[in-house]
Protein 1
Amino acid sequence: MVDIAERPARLAAPAAVPPPASAGPGPTRPARLLGLGGRALHRSAALLALAAGWEAVPRAGLVDRVFLPPLSEVLTAWWALLRGGQLADHVGASLTRSLTGLALAVLTAIPLGLLIGWYRPLADLLSPLLEVFRNTAALALLPVFVLILGLGETSKIALVLYACSWPILLNTIAGVKGVDPLLIRSARSMGLNHLRLFQKVILPAAVPTIFTGVRLAGAYSILVLVAAEMVGAKAGLGYLINYAQYNFAIPDMYAGIITISAIGLIVNQLLVAGERRFSTWRVDPTA
């Protein structure tokens, strides 16, 4: 019998595996800042190109600078309006009307859309009426709102409410109807009643689509309001643009237009942040 000690060396314990090399140090703070700066520059490249073109084209004489002044002159007029307090007054008036109409649309259209999307009898009852009004442009009804509600704040807020309700309502209905039937069957097999099913499955699954409608409504609230403020208003960005055009204050007119664009961008970013807050479970496919 061969003793264990006389076995070949190939049966000896295997050599120890060397530990993996430690990972190198993470990116330094300047490198991270440089990366963030590069991403910010990449995202704003189109806006910077637009600003450069706006400044260069009128100065080169390609267009009449009376009708399209350079961007620097527009920004100077914008700063003068801001320092004089006029811009703040007009922005405050427009935001009050826009946000009031948008808030009322959210409070009314989302519950109604949830009910229509969840209860088929209600959807069958209201669908013909919805199809009639959804194809009627909000600005086409501006004279009707003015005739019924007058030239005051009520008609403008009501017009914003009408314009904002449709994207929210239709996207809410689509979000409820677009929930995966497998999720609904699985939840019912686990014994969830109608209320818990709606709370735990339907509503969370419809949140991204609902927020898409709210984002569209946020853009509509500003666009429709500006058009409404050009009729019978004493303050607001639409009034500012119209007044500047009639008085041939072209830089002031473009300053109002830039302000509207900036407000729309800020509102959209706030709504995107809200969507991420209320749909943290959602996986970003582009990540």
Note: Residues 194-229 form the longest helix (36 residues).
Protein 2
Amino acid sequence: MLTNLTRRTLMKGAAATGLVAAVGSRALAADEPLGIVLVVPSPVGDVGWGRALADGLEPVKAAYGDKVKVTIIENIQEGPDADRIMNKAVADGNKFLIAGSFGYQNGALQIARRNPDVTVLHASGFQVAPNFSPFAAQYSQGTYLMGMAAAALSKTGKLGSVSAFAIPELITSINAFTLGAQAVKPDVEVSVVWVNSWFDPAKEQEAAKALLAQKCDVIFSNAQDTPSVVSACEEAGIPAFNLNSSMKKYAPKTYLGCVATDWSPFFKASVDAHLSGTFKGANAFLGVGDKVVEVVDWNPGIPADVMTKIKDVEAKIADGSFSPFTGPIAKADGSEGVPAGKTMAVAEIVAMDWHVKGVTTPLPK
């Protein structure tokens, strides 16, 4: 069973009949289905972050059928609205909450602490509790590979990224993109435009055009929930790639590829653990080796010798013998970021708040 709700329909339902009618009843019988609620900050369209999360629940529904009831509440901005909606969903008897945005962290964590019988998964965060697991993709593994391809196709040596928010998950994606590009062309530079939004098609297109005006000739759409950047690059004849789900149909000629995410293994394992009473909160930082991150829809114009190198590195990432964040790595200001021979630990990667040398745009204050 699946229900899709927006903020508008949710609030209308709450005013007319109480939110309980929309997301379930608190007085659940023993044979009632497990209520699973996914809350996301953008509309769930045919591509993007929200789509990837929603698709990740499909195998859960297939496995459990009528034993689960999945509700997707979309277009919920971070802040008080999100806190109220998540609290109400849990108060109405739903026992499994997926808080699908970094900015939901504090509210979702408080829900977990007040409701030890509820399992909470939180996207992109870092807090952990017995019934609260943050989850994030190791996009950096895929963006390193895309950087190799981008450098091979670039004629100007200038790459660009339209990026949503300056959070560690996206900073690491840019850094790995830069390092991968430098592995092919050491002098490559990367410019970034931060749009400070998960969903703003007009602003995203404007940012893409600004990067194109700076002679950036490959663009990384970093966590946009719309194809705006990819479409603008197609119109300009410039390669672009994105995260989470393929946008190839919006750029059939110039699409470079997609660092795709499949959340179904993690979601299914988490629901299994909840139902068996064995769930334990932990930081889930998942990548190529976990079958969560995969680069798809490679552009056929990537030179064959570069593609061979990319596939070799991809195999080493998958078996754990290579990390994009093995030193020596210099910071953008010239200081040492990672010493030679050292590989950054997961805790360091998920807290990264600095750019590597070659990223020319300072991080927002």
Note: The longest strand covers residues 68-74.
Protein 3
Amino acid sequence: MSLKRKDFLGLYDVSAEEINQILDTAVAMKDILTRTVKKVPTLRGKTVINLFYEPSTRTKFSFNLAAKRLSADVMSISKSSSSIAKGESLLDTAKTMEVMGADVVVIRHSAPGAAKFLADNISASVLNAGDGAHAHPTQALLDIYSIKEKLGEIAGLKVLIVGDIAHSRVARSNIWGLNKLGAEVAVAGPQTLIPREIEKMGVKVYSDLDQALENVDVVNILRIQMERQESGLFPSIREYREIYGMNAERLERIGKKAMIMHPGPMNRGIEIESSVADSPQSVITEQVKNGVAIRMALLYLLAGREIDNEDLN
């Protein structure tokens, strides 16, 4: 079993069939994470390099753990502790990794298109862990997996994404993936944080959060970046919290069947109250576990190995 592509750069050009293949594979991978011995020899002899040009805790740790659970050899390279800090270009770094025998390169970079540039210049598979405000496909997949695990089929579900849509690679990737699986996607936030003509991506747009919350099945709350307030994109943190923060009153209004999600890290007390983040409707901690399963699935599928009893037992 393998993907019909060398690289995995985003969900914009991925079919619903491929998304479901990844989700189905992640089910088997999550089963591995529940065992007493949480490791299989599936990628023994393969080398995975994590190349992170941006700070990261959850995503970087998740990819490291995913590769190790599959018995791959793992190397992590960060901007501050490598030749990148001395001015080495992305292309030169890529060529070095290729000579070192990388099978899969996981990259996070502040420049949109960096993952595509890398994929075009090395023979190893490239997995995009976030490129600027463009795409974050593994976060979207773990979000979709979490929804499907709790609510069943994605088709027909009403999913609301709240917050800074304009600067969010998570929002874009979720919209691409959810639309392909038949969900009804809406976004809500200040007009200054909503991209122009985003309706063309197949979403409804709301400036009134309370109106947007009517009859939703899932609320995915994005982290507010403090620098947006400093640059004048919304008046104040207090005002944002009152108008767009997910609080106990709004949680009660949407009912007990609705899911609460957040990609992390959270600003508790700003975009989400602790009572909401820690409520029974919240799957935020489960998203972290599902992230490891999704990344295991992608590493496995990109390596093009066959699942058999020997690999997964």
Note: The radius of gyration is 19 Å.
Protein 4
Amino acid sequence: MLSQVESHLRSDRFPHIWCPGCGNGIVLSALVRAIEELGCDPDKTVVVSGIGCSSRAAGYLDFNTLHTTHGRALAFATGIKLARPELDVFVLMGDGDATAIGGNHFIHAARRNIDLTAIIFNNSIYGMTGGQYSPLTPPGKRATTAPYGNIERSFDIAELAKGAGATYVARATTYHATMLEKLIMAGAKNKGFSVIEAITACPVGYGRRNKMGNGLQMLLWQKEHAVTVKQAEKMSPEELQDKIIIGELYRGEAPEYTVMYEEIIARAKGKTQ
């Protein structure tokens, strides 16, 4: 008998391309378990991805899937949701895919508050294209394009999403896989734009260059550096340096884009009849 996760996978697409120790499979499993727990109809579930290591996940899933162009996953997903608002649409992106070439699409999807669930695989690096630094690479960390350390400040993806208008924002690490599953479920239930940042390890492209060890050691690093929202409330700014705050970070309310769009269509039809 196939497991809960295996029943939603395209077995003919395996073995996967991810390196040993990569955390992307953990994120993929959390997503599938969340979809299963939500009771989503597989025929009415859509998974859209861009380009990169994380975006290959869509090809392994037995839903309606699109593997799109670099940085444009949210643009494709927006079109799908506008045309078929009854569908459950999940968007998988890497840190560079979502916040560099796809940054404009990201902030405007948040601004519109369109009912999409965006899951950002944050491994702090461009893994597939050669290990370049991304907008989420921490200052001082090394990459092929920053051999002496990155001098740029990194985005706080949660604050960026919140500031742009997302109505649900959360974060978990691959060490906290159960929490990640629950946050994805909560994001999918939110009627609006939801962002779940999944901190995941790239032991080959990022960990090796920054002397963080193998995949297991990077998982333990996540455990040691993560603090919950409640824990963070009791900590000083100095104590929070180099810490990852995990859990539900923001929940708000705003009109949902496809609902407003349908209302406009109805008003326009009323005037022409």
Note: Residues 257-272 form the longest helix (16 residues).
